[in-house]
TrEMBL record:
<keyword id="KW-0472">Membrane</keyword>
<keyword id="KW-0813">Transport</keyword>
<keyword id="KW-0812">Transmembrane</keyword>
<keyword id="KW-0999">Mitochondrion inner membrane</keyword>
<keyword id="KW-0249">Electron transport</keyword>
<comment type="function">
    <text>Accessory subunit of the mitochondrial membrane respiratory chain NADH dehydrogenase (Complex I), that is believed not to be involved in catalysis. Complex I functions in the transfer of electrons from NADH to the respiratory chain. The immediate electron acceptor for the enzyme is believed to be ubiquinone.</text>
</comment>
<dbReference type="GO" id="GO:0032981">
    <property type="term" value="P:mitochondrial respiratory chain complex I assembly"/>
</dbReference>
<keyword id="KW-1133">Transmembrane helix</keyword>
<protein>
    <recommendedName>
        <fullName>NADH dehydrogenase [ubiquinone] 1 beta subcomplex subunit 3</fullName>
    </recommendedName>
</protein>
<dbReference type="GO" id="GO:0005743">
    <property type="term" value="C:mitochondrial inner membrane"/>
</dbReference>
<keyword id="KW-0496">Mitochondrion</keyword>
<dbReference type="InterPro" id="IPR012576">
    <property type="entry name" value="NDUFB3"/>
</dbReference>
<keyword id="KW-0679">Respiratory chain</keyword>
<comment type="similarity">
    <text>Belongs to the complex I NDUFB3 subunit family.</text>
</comment>
<dbReference type="Pfam" id="PF08122">
    <property type="entry name" value="NDUF_B12"/>
</dbReference>
<dbReference type="GO" id="GO:0022900">
    <property type="term" value="P:electron transport chain"/>
</dbReference>
<keyword id="KW-0830">Ubiquinone</keyword>
């Protein structure tokens, strides 16, 4: 096939070993596992959800991440909206069609 052989050097990322994810490390999932065991059931895929419960940051940092999520799109959208409103003279105050301070009506 021509070009560089991407597979020769391996993928540009490292796939973590599935052994690092243990249901026993997550109390919520451990409880699910125990409840299933009481009914004679087992979920072999339960380990796949461990990553969702891993606490990789402090509660403060998780709060900051939660509060700032979406700012990358939201702030530019807000600024563009303000610029468009200014450019077209859009006024939502409801006072745009009344008398101004010089007594001139806009009817």
């Amino acid at each position: 096939m021509g070009g560089h052989d991407v597979h020769h050097h391996g993928p540009p990322y490292k796939i973590p070993s599935p052994d690092i994810f243990k249901v026993e490390d997550v109390p919520e999932l451990k409880h699910v596992q125990e409840e299933l065991a009481k009914k004679g059931l087992k979920d072999p895929w339960l380990r796949n959800h461990v990553w969702r419960f891993k606490r990789s940051a402090s509660p403060f940092m998780r709060g900051i991440i939660c509060l700032t999520r979406g700012w990358r799109v939201g702030v530019p959208a807000f600024l563009i909206t303000i610029a468009v409103e200014q450019y077209f003279g859009i006024d939502y105050s409801g006072h745009g069609h009344h008398e101004d301070k010089h007594g001139n009506g806009h009817h």
